[in-house]
Amino acid sequence: MTNSIACVDKAQGFLVIGSNTTENHPIIGDRVKRAVTQRGAKLVVIDPRRIELAEYANVFLQVKPGHNIPVILGMMHVILKEGLHAPDYIAERCEGFEEFAASLDAYSPERVQEITGVDADLIRKAARVYAGAKPASILYAMGVTQHTQGTDAVKCLANLAMLTGNVGVEGGGVNPLRGQNNVQGACDMGGLPNVVTGYQKVGDDEAMAKFDEAWGRKVPREPGLTLTEMGQAALEGKIRALYVMGENPMITDPDLHHIEKALDNLDFLVVQDIFLTETAAKADVVLPACSFAEKDGTFTNTERKVQRVRAALAPRGESKPDWQIVQELSTKMGYPMSYAHPREIFDEIASLTPSYAGIDYDRIEREGIPWPCPDKDHPGTPVLHVEKFARGKGLFHVVEYKGSAEEADDEYPLVLTTGREHPHYHSGSMTRRCGRINDCFPEGFLEMHPADAERLGLRTGDPVRVTSRRGEITTKVKVVDRPAPGTVFLSFHYSESPVNVLTNPATCPVAKIPEYKVTAVRVEKA
Predict the structure, then answer these.
(1) Are residues 244 and 332 located together in one domain of the fold?
(2) Could you tell me if 444 and 316 lie in one domain?
(3) pLDDT digits over 182-204, tens only?
(4) Which structural domain range is residue 63 located in?
(5) pLDDT of residue 422
(6) In this predicted model, what pLDDT tens digit does every residue of 126-142 receive, in sequence order?
(7) Distance of CA 141 to CAs 18, 22, 145, 171, 222, Å?
(8) How far is residue 318's CA from residue 289's CA, in Å, rounded to a whole number?
(9) Is there a contact between 48 and 77 (Cβ–Cβ < 8 Å)?
(10) Among the listed residues 116, 26, 10, the one whose alpha carbon sits nearest the alpha carbon of residue 70
């Protein structure tokens, strides 16, 4: 997030897109609801489903899955044509505006209506509501990124925020809501194939020289593979062994038949987890890790705040904290590690990572600090890009809508989109082992609009077979008006009806994120 969670309370307007905020990020979702109901903040919601926040919205645009980009382009067309943009901010702080502005001519609300089916007047209204609220915050999640044009969609949102002068101000910003409690921290620590800690590029010799010296080894200068690329490489025999930590690709990866073949083709699979997940069940070795409540360390949350985590329980059985497992394994493989406590590891992180340089355990004993925090006297940075952008000037990107990797057709006439539901979490490895939750929510349902259900002769509770170009699953249907006609929805928590058997492994060419949100399917009574 460019802004803090507290900034939600200062926003006069919100654009919530591709985020079922109240179910998946309920603390932030409640803040948005309070802002609307108690302060009169304006709200625009863009989503394929009529989520709870749609009932609070001044404007709700129910887009077809995969159509975020043309709707945002249409909104920006209106903002520019009606003079609702921030010309002084753009002139002082941004570049590339002229070419960007010219590219919007092709996306009038009428043309966007032809592409998306969203009413042109609603697009105009959404543009006026967002641009008229000062400051306005953009909140988004995986409904924006899990597309073959996911990176372009994020660029569109950045363009929109800069166009209206909403970057670098309290209550504004472009704010991706992280889906798990330490996703931000994992990325910060180099859990990406092209960077090390603090997003220092692996090809940067000056940055890498620090790590060479600290670790006494030459650090590779070539980027590694992304998660989706690793699966394909394993299938082709280019990867012979895989070490999986706290991930359950046998439920969460797209085209599960494909990933299962890839894992079966390995010579050796190690899984480190707190439960015997569907992936761990296929492993040659399972390393028992500790839960969050059994270990010390830090988490970095969605607003970039580095916070202490303290062990409340002793580890169960033979389980150990992740850092101890990695340390012992590294030592056995010939690279001795001898950290006595996570504090020592964090001190090393701070010494090698400019954005973390001013943070230590003493400073975050009682309250977390948001990075960047370059020195011990710095208070941290709740809002990014206040005086200038990290690159100097904010760059407007020209984005063209290209469409999704597959569309509905005569053989697969419905579009499936996927996501989470409130009671369960991710692959269900934790929440589906919680008796009370699982008793109340034991199975998934295919959400279907009443018009589609009537055409197919289906009622709530009927078993259905859902088929895509990659496979089929059986589940039950729930007839509701949350999805639009032609769109169906499934959550991915349930191993009995694993939706990712169906999903498309096509990826964004930049971020390599699969297109989970657009899958052409047909539905038949089972």
Answers:
(1) yes
(2) no
(3) 899 999 999 999 999 999 999 89
(4) 5-177
(5) 76
(6) 999 999 999 999 999 99
(7) 6, 12, 7, 18, 30
(8) 9
(9) no
(10) 116
Calculate what percentage of the chain has a pLDDT beyond 70: 100
Given pLDDT bands bounded at 50, 70 and 90, which one contains residue 439? confident
DSSP annotation of 286 reads E
Residue 424 burial (CB count, 10 A): 20
Contact 466, 521 (CB under 8 A): yes
Looking at the DSSP assignment, which residues form a beta bridge with residue 519? 416
DSSP string, 25-67: SHHHHHHHHHHHHHH--EEEEEESB--GGGGG-SEEEEPPTT-
**pLDDT reading at 447 higher than 90:** yes
Read off the tokens for 170: 């309290």
* CA 465 centroid distance within chain: 29
Smallest CA-to-CA distance from 157 within 230, 101, 63, 76 is with: 76
Output the CA–CA distances (angstroms, integers) from residue 473 to 144, 466, 476, 486, 517, in the order listed. 26, 5, 10, 19, 17
The C-alpha atoms of residue 24 and residue 179 are separated, in whole angstroms, by 7
Q: Where residue 109 sits, what CATH number does that domain have?
A: 3.40.228.10
The amino acid at 130: Y
Quick check: 79 and 85 in contact, CB under 8 A? yes
User: Domain for residue 148, yes or no?
Assistant: yes
Specify the pTM: 0.93
Q: Tell me the CATH number at 230.
A: 3.40.50.740
Structure-block tokens of residue 164: 């209206």
Tokens encoding 328? 């012992």
User: What are the structure tokens assigned to 277, written together?
Assistant: 């997940």
User: Is 333 inside any structural domain?
Assistant: yes
What is the bridge-based pairing of β-strands 174-176 and 136-140? parallel
CATH number at residue 459: 2.40.40.20
**Between these two residues, 54 and 439, which has the higher pLDDT value?**
54
Q: Is 9 helix (H, G, I), strand (E, B) or coil?
A: helix
Both 264 and 296 in one domain: the answer is yes
Angle in degrees, CA 241, 178, 488, rounded to 5 = 90
- The whole-angstrom separation of Cα 176 and Cα 16 is 10
Spatial neighbors of 183 by CB under 8 A, at least 6 apart, are 302
Residue ranges of alpha helices (H) inside 61-108 are 68-81, 87-93, 97-103
